[in-house]
Input
Amino acid sequence: MRFSHVLILVTCFCAVGSLAGNSALAAIEGGDAARGKMLAVEDCLPCHIQGAEAGTMTPISKTQRQWVRFFEKDRHNKIAPGSWDQLPEQDLKDIMQYIYDHAADSDQPATFD
Ligand code: HEC
Output
């Protein structure tokens, strides 16, 4: 096999690898949604109730895809720096699970009620 062929092969494997990586991130899985709902009410809603400066936020504020991107890109930390700093990683994961499971385009769209 010529060197250029080897290079093409390596490129293909890398492309497949990164595609697989992306699809793994296309869903939020493994968190405890029931726990996440309670935590979100305690940890998110104080800033996100109707009339509050940060505005209302519920699972149906976004689609599942939009939520994945929102969390992946750490967008909250850019718009409201530090506001999630006290949240243990597992708590955030559970919150994300509830929000994702009940997003606007999910099987069971829901708010925090
Ligand atoms: C300390 C207050 C505070 C807490 C706690 C908080 N947020 Fe926010 N959040 C904000 C502020 C401020 C904004 C920006 C509002 C604006 O400028 O419109 C925001 C914006 C958002 C947005 C809209 C951003 C967008 O571009 O769509 C979402 C979604 C959001 N927060 C989710 C959450 C979630 C989920 C939690 C709990 C894990 C949470 N927030 C906890 C203050 C907070």
